[in-house]
Amino acid sequence: MDTTTDTRRGRLLTWLESGTAQRLRERAGLTFNEVAERIGVSHVTVRRCEKERYVPRDRDAAIRYYELLARLRDELKDAER
What is the DSSP letter of 28? Predict the structure, then answer.
C-alpha cells in the first residue's frame, strides 16, 4: 500500500471517528444509498462506517469514499462563499 492510500484511509477514519463524514453527507443532502451508489458499496456499509467508525476493507472503496467526502467538503465551502 502506498503512502497516499495510507493517508487517505487515515483521513477517512479521522472523519468517521469525529462525525465529520456524517455531517458532510447530511449537509450535502445525501442518503446512505446515494453515497453507497457513488462509491460502489452497500448502504449497510456506509451506515456501518458512520455509526461504528468502520473503514471499508476494500481499499478502492475507502479511497472513493474519502474522495467523495473531500469533494463534498470543497463544494460546501465554495457554496458558503
Answer: T
Cα 6–chain centre separation: 15
Q: How far is CA 22 from the centre of its chain?
A: 8
User: Quick one: which of 16, 8, 28 has its CA closest to 80?
Assistant: 28
Q: Are residues 31 and 73 in contact, defined by beta-carbon separation less than 8 angstroms?
A: no
Give the predicted TM-score (pTM) of the model. Answer: 0.89
Cα-to-chain-centroid distance, residue 18: 12
Q: Distance (Å, rounded) from C-alpha 12 to C-alpha 77?
A: 18
Summarised one tens digit per residue, pLDDT across range 36-60 is: 999 999 999 999 999 999 899 899 9
With b for 16 or more beta-carbon neighbours within 10 A and e for fewer, the 43-66 pattern comes to eebbbbbbeeeebbeeeebbbbbb
